[in-house]
Batch of 2 targets.
Target 1
Amino acid sequence: MYAFEYQKPKSLADAAARAANEDAKILAGGMTLIPTLKQRLARPSELIDLGGIAELKGIRKEGNDVVIGAMTRHADVAASDLVRSTIPALADLAGMIGDPAVRHRGTIGGSIANADPAADYPAAVVGLGATVITNQRQIPGDDFFTGLFETALEPGEIITAVRFPPAQKAAYMKFRNPASRYAIVGVFVAQTAGGVRVAVTGAGPSVFRQKEMEAALSKSFSPDVIKDVKQSPDGLNSDIHASAEYRAHLVGVMARRAVEKCG
Amino acid sequence: MSETGIGARVTRKEDFRFVTGRGTYTDDINRPNQLWMWLLRSPHAHARLKKIDTTAAAKMPGVHAIFTHDDLARDNVGGLPCGWLIHSKDGSPMVEPPHPVLAAGVVRHVGDPIAAVIAETRAQAREAAEAIEVDYEVLPAVVDTREAIKDGAPQIWPEAKNNTCFDWHLGDKDAVDKAFAKAAHVTKLDLVNNRLVPNAMEPRAAIGEYDVATGEHTLWTTSQNPHVIRLLMGAFVLHIPEHKLRVVAPDVGGGFGSKIYHYAEEALVTWAAAKVKRPVKWTADRSESFMSDAQGRDHHTHAELALDKDGKFLGLRVSTLANLGAYLSTFSTSIPTYLYGTLLAGTYTTPAIYVETRAVFTNTVPVDAYRGAGRPEASYLLERIVDLAADELGIDPAELRRRNFIPKDAYPYQTPVALQYDSGDYFTTLDMALKAADYANFEARRKEAASRGKYRGIGMATYIEACGIAPSAVAGALGARAGLYEMAEVRVHPTGSVTLFTGCHSHGQGHETTFAQLVADRLGIPIDQVEVVHGDTGKIPFGMGTYGSRSLPVGGSAIVKALDKVVAKGKKIAAHLLEAAEADIEFKDGKFQVAGTDRAKTFGEIALTAYVPHKYPIEELEPGLDETAFYDPKNFTYPAGAHVVEVEIDPDTGVVELKGVWAADDFGRIINPMIVEGQVHGGLAQGIGQALLEHCVYDDSGQLLTGSFNDYAMPRADDLPSFHLGTNATLCTHNPLGVKGCGEAGAIGSPGAVMNAIVDALSPLGVKHIDMPASPRRIWETIQAHRPRMAAE
Ligand SMILES: Cc1cc2nc3c(=O)[nH]c(=O)nc-3n(C[C@H](O)[C@H](O)[C@H](O)COP(=O)(O)OP(=O)(O)OC[C@H]3O[C@@H](n4cnc5c(N)ncnc54)[C@H](O)[C@@H]3O)c2cc1C
């Protein structure tokens, strides 16, 4: 780790002012950022710990939606009665992230800001048509993830919360990387007010919607209708754990299992 | 059996300290005024060091010194020695290139150390290391042994043509050729034994200290064998005589072989501490462990088994390419040779065996012993080819094994590959494991699984290992440059409590408990009156350390010998006190008693008399009660057993689910069943890890693709089912306890059983073999390749 200044502002405004410094870096759960610093892959002059800002924490209901503060830990989402009763698939997903230690440190804001191609939350953000709320604006989930570790966030922009609309039915199926336990492929399927959504994480450089499956499921919401939908391996990730072909195949398997799980 | 004696499930004495975080590991130790070392390591797999410029780095804050190979050369620091000389088929000695402590002009694997920075803090040392400017001329690299032996492959050492270190063989080639000529059936198999990263929980660490006043050097290090390190480092590398060099291996968090070897960092901190006249500490981070701890396995093998029409094995022919990595680690050369080829008889009567091993340098981290060390490679190969033969001949794999097992009455049994087994019973352990697994009714379970669209399979493997390493004369004749006896000192204190000094080292094995049980049992004293001391050359007269499941067979035997001496002297003292003839004194249950009378002295009274010799045969007997013994084993010990594994495979994902794991082992006499079970559990986890998860992968340029736990898949608790264990003892005939050792068995037997189960599960598709690790991807791809076209579409 290189030396840095550590700040723990009490207000969002203070944090935002500091985050304007382009050498500064926001610290949430630190589950990704701290290892990055330890490996000396980043050299921020200043870390701005969001842990002291009360308004970023917690889960609340706004109308029919569930709004989760950016600094809410995965374990709290997994255990939340509100989330469980409104969008159980989201609580399930949070409970599948990493291990207990990671779930008690990692945050939803950090996870989606980081936009790891193998992360789980992006599947829910896109799969449920959520809205990412920042200190500056509201970004539709569909527009938030723009590429490999890339998001629509502007430099210094801070995620404050994510708003999830409920779904009639939803389920997340994850095929874990045997080493890291991140998603080799994760598929979030939901029947929402705006139609059926099938969001795929892990398979590509960034989360994406499987439109063919969405179309088929819109006509008839059953696993059989997507049996013949072929996910193309073109452009999918390939590494020692899974080839693009294997990932493409798993997209189909996980999607079918997710639809089955929806009941 | 007493509550703490031989055979009792005594809870581990050391666990209070470990589970409450009160252990003292090397990294827990900080010396006054200590500095830190950070190593600049090569980012390239193969490169010439055209220039190393440390000028800017030396001016960085906190930096005391920066050392490179030139500094070591000026002080005549030697290279790291290899402890085992192997000869090739043609009689020529192996190619033994230098193993410099810091790279001498060329780096040969990613992680090869180039410069040592000594600074006030670890962060400062690291920062300065980054500021060292190295001008690399990157050279072509080779990581795969099959490529490395080709003409025109990058040459890692000019003296090693085609990167070959040696081309060794064992066995009677003519006899094998004849056996094949008359065979009714020949089974052939090519297989890979995947490279593994040991990943002890505690990364390596070392602290060097030099006492200017006494001229004494001290090294604290994460070692399985501190005396061996003192010997190697003192004699070959730093030229420090033993009486001025103390090596301490305090609590060590797992080794699995990787902490046997003498590593560059140990020599560096010891040497640098004397240079800068302040203690110097180094602790590896996990990334460094991945690229500097010696790795395991990495064999490519072609094997052929000749059978007669009844399935009797006639001959075995094995040809192996073994990866040594870029340098010869301490015992690297013995692993794919004498710890591998000699095990190829396994549990079978195969009359003719011929094995050739070509050991190859590559641009990878050195390879050396890892839990099992050569024996898992032998066992896996045998058990796979036996299963394949059973499949080809249409014989039940259990039946084929039974037809070829060494008969129960054939001991001592001389194998065609040098070893002589003293005892064993492979029939009983196989039957136990099969029965426990309900092998007889397996087909119904296969059918039931098929009805759910799953492939279910069952597999078995038997194994034998040569443990209790090693009879020194035998090892010496085979090229070992060390003796492999063990030492124990039993120091009885005046009030009758005992400190046991052992030359073995405990880094997870529970010696503090098992060895205390031996003492308590023999002397009839409470176990809390026994303290076991290990891991410090300043306290323990000598020792060869712990590896190869040797601690109980060899170290335990030394303890028994020392206890014999204590009892013998005690009898003399008792005879004097009781005014009886020495021959009439019996020692039992902690009492020295005149046979047939009630006249007796307790062990405590005798101890006190030895140190307060008022009434004492002082003319004939020295005071004190402190006995030392060395024990050199007469033979190896031969733990053996059978593992059975049942799996279910999801063809949609390729995921293998373990439905059951059964092990039936013969470890000889068992001192503490709970500790034995723990050892088997850990071994099984590692063996299953090798079969299903673990794989160390380099890309073609020599970059380590699995350099962290993000990509290197370690087995976790939820990857494993509950294990079903059983034991059946045939006693070792040549050591006083009848013990065989249990440390490696789990890792030796399980890979074959897992893979046989997987191949069995996929046999309806025509699958004959799958290499480890059977990752979901590999299984899925295998299924795709074997599926009839129609079904795949
Ligand atoms: C061992 C391990 C296993 C894991 N397994 C999984 C898994 O299975 N699935 C999975 O999805 N994830 C997994 N993770 C990731 C983890 O769950 C975290 O979500 C992730 O590390 C980032 O969250 P964090 O709160 O720790 O963010 P940090 O590490 O603190 O920050 C990550 C990045 O986001 C930025 N950032 C943080 N908060 C905000 C904000 N509010 N606004 C703008 N930018 C912000 C930071 O500046 C930084 O660049 C794993 C992590 C570890 C260490």
Target 2
Amino acid sequence: MSDWLKRFLPFASLVVLCVLIAAAEPKFLSAGNLAGVARQTAVITIIAMGMTVVMISGGIDLSVGSEMALAGVAGALLMAAGAPPWVGVLGALAAGAACGLANGAAVAALRIPPFIVTLGAMGIYRGVALLATDGKAVVGLPQSFGWLAEGEVLGFVPVPLVFVVLVALLTHFLLSGTRAGRYCYAVGSNVEAARYAGVRVSRYQIMFYVFLGALAGLAGAIESARLVTGQPTAGEGYELRVIAAVVIGGGSLSGGQGSVLGTVVGALIMGVLSNGANLLGISSFTQQIVIGAVIVLAVTFDEFQRRRLETLS
Amino acid sequence: MRGITKSFAGNSVLAGVSLRAAAGEVHALVGENGAGKSTLMKVLAGVHRPEGGEILIEGRPVHFTSPADALAHGVAMIYQELSLAPHLTVAENIFLGREPLRFRPLGVVAKRELNERAGRLLEDYGFRIDPRAVVGRLSAAARQLVEIARATAEARRVVVMDEPTSSLTAHEAEDLFRLIRDLKGRGLAVVYISHRLEELGEVADRLTVLRDGREVYEGAWGELSQGEIIRHMAGRELKDIFPPRAAQRGAALLRVEGLTRKGKFEDVTFEARAGEVVGLAGLAGAGRTELVEAVFGAQPFDGGAVYLNGAKFNAPDPARAVGRGLGLLTEDRKRTGLCPDQTLARNLTLANVGALVKRWVLSRGREREAAREYVERLRVRPPDPERVAGRLSGGNQQKVLLGRWLFAGSRVFLLDEPTRGVDVAARAEIYRAVNRLAEGGVAVVMVSSDLPELLGMADRILVMRRGRLVAELDAKRTTQEEVLTYATLEEEFEIRNDE
Ligand SMILES: Nc1ncnc2c1ncn2[C@@H]1O[C@H](COP(=O)(O)OP(=O)(O)OP(=O)(O)O)[C@@H](O)[C@H]1O
Ligand SMILES: [Mg+2]
């Protein structure tokens, strides 16, 4: 009963939210606006897919916003130096993956709590991005690069949405159809038990952080394509939204739980919430308060469920 | 307790159970794994709310809404799964929530008084544990004793003990029995759950047998023979707890040479052949767990070597040990065994996920099939592979973990207290599974504090004392007394022997 509620609640919230906003502002349902929501939510959703994996394995990464900026800047610098867009995108992916590797290695090998490691990394990566660009936006990117954010497939599907679907499918397969997925849940559920069962815990933990880093890199590339510049200040505060998406979608801060579908719904809730707020003329400052409150609510709900489960068992 | 009913998610677990525990009496509660013993007692302790029936204490009906509530009525429980705070000290755990305070309004804990009182309590009980030690660093046995001390210190009317001896050795169990007699003398009612019928004879006055959530017998202890009790529990006749084994002794699959870890074990040398079951006996703290975990690569060692199939293999970590065909059923299933919020099937296949994968893709069908096969073979109850493992009863969790290594197809099995908390019928299943392993040419090293089990199952029994192997006995010819003598020999005697 409670498991069922936990699965159902995010969907129900999303539907209720959409109905409420549509009632207050019919423009919400226009094709143009919905495509806009998809574009705006894409970056968060892509990172949130990686965050789902890391959080299921019992970790967390607070540096995703900085990783995204650093990766976006790295790709932009490559292109500004004359590289074609696809090299720029690969460069961003590689930069993100490298950040993830560093985070994962620190967590797995040095056994520092992920919260601390990635809090430090958040400052480091942002600093590197600012240093590399002197704090200014990287300009002079090829026009064709903009397709990554503004282009359409089949005439009406936004390109970022295509990436979201691909990444979601890939992550879902990774979690439910591979050995790494089984290990991911096992490590998050009980690290020691996983170790004693012969799981190479460190190796997989590193892999999960690299996966998240690469996705943050992809998100960074899409974000710079949207702005057609490499912004060292991109992605500030995104860690909050990404973690919120995972938690709202049923992921647990203590690991072992979470799903791709849940996170997608969680990210959509975040996206619809901010789009609705914009349509209704609610300031972005107020939005921040709302996002923060939603996270606390979601975690409270999760804890409440957990306690009920514990008294049951 | 009268006519208690309780169900989880629509599955009835208790169907109108009654239990009367009189003051100054020890009431034994037995039944197969999953019969509902723990659930019944958790109802009494205020953990679960019953759907029907009533609880009467000294004739007055009570409704507990929490364990604290039950405690206020003098009811305390020692849980099957230990529930101490690992980062706190022994003394802090014992007095958790009832700390002696200085400067009362500020709530400053009187540290010295806390430690002194805990120390006196432990001494009274005859437990040799430092009240200042951090609980997380203690052995499973010591933690169990702390748990016992905490609950009995709080209880005023009823103490429930859910398998309190499961991680104790015979020696420590004696201390516990003395404590129980003392509690009895003070006029408390004790409810005692155990799968070891032999030890119940030491303390029990009355007996209730539970089967599938119903009481099938209630009477004075001693009215039924062991065989009859088992028949009531299982609902059928059970012969041959230790079935015969027709195993061919083969080559030495595992050889341990001079293995040493300072302060834990020293210069340990033994081998285990294909088709052989080697028993490791000893008191808690003799270093048996540290030894098998070192062989498995889960704990470090300082010197010596391990040979698998004649080739030197000092396992650097469990992953590589598993890769070479070692399997370790650990002593502490909560800490190092179970992934509690994952399904039974996922827990069972965890050590060999590779067998479910074909060209990168994991087959859920094969996962379910494998789980179903071992669930059937080991009679896991309920036989539902999709059940969350943390919600299985203790004994069934243990079967799942044994199934994990069966499915992994290990060649050398290290079993550390393999039948902890497992009922008689299921124990027989496990013994049969071990026999089948041996007959299939596997080497088994079995650490156990249950001497009848070692005598019944092992070919040879190695006795460990204070980290050293002190005897090798033929299981067919030795006796419990002989094993115990070697396990407990006094230091003095040893020195004289050395001279
Ligand atoms: N929280 C829970 N949710 C669902 N089912 C549960 C829960 N707790 C116990 N059960 C089920 O209730 C039944 C009885 O469990 P219980 O733990 O009382 O058995 P037990 O007699 O103590 O067994 P054991 O000897 O193995 O400890 C089992 O089938 C178990 O799976
Ligand atoms: Mg139980």
